[in-house]
Amino acid sequence: METFKFDPKIFISPPFIKCPKCNEEAFGVLTINKNSYTRRCRECFFPKGGDRPQIYDLPKLNKEVIYLDQLVISEMMKSLNPKTKAYQKGQLDTFWLTLFEKLDTLSKLQLIICPDSNYHTNESLLSPYFEQLERLYKLLSHGVSFYDRGTIERFQVYENMKNWIAGRPDDPISIDVEDVVHGDINAWRDKLLISIKREWEEGGIEKLRQDRDQINSGFLETFTRWQSETDKDFDYWFHEEWSAYGRLVLQVYFNYLKTYVEVAIGKTEPTTNFIFPPDPVVLIHECHRVLRDAGLPDTVLWDKTVEYFSSPSLRHVPTIKISSMLYASLARKAAAGQKSPPTKGMTNDIGMISSLLPYCDAIFIDNECHTYLTEQPLCDEVNYGTKIFSPNNRDEFMEYLNSIEAAMPTEHLEKVSEVYGSTWCKPYTTLFTDE
Ligand SMILES: [Zn+2]
Question: How far is ligand 1, taken at its centre, from the CA of residue 422, in Å?
Answer without folding.
Answer: 22
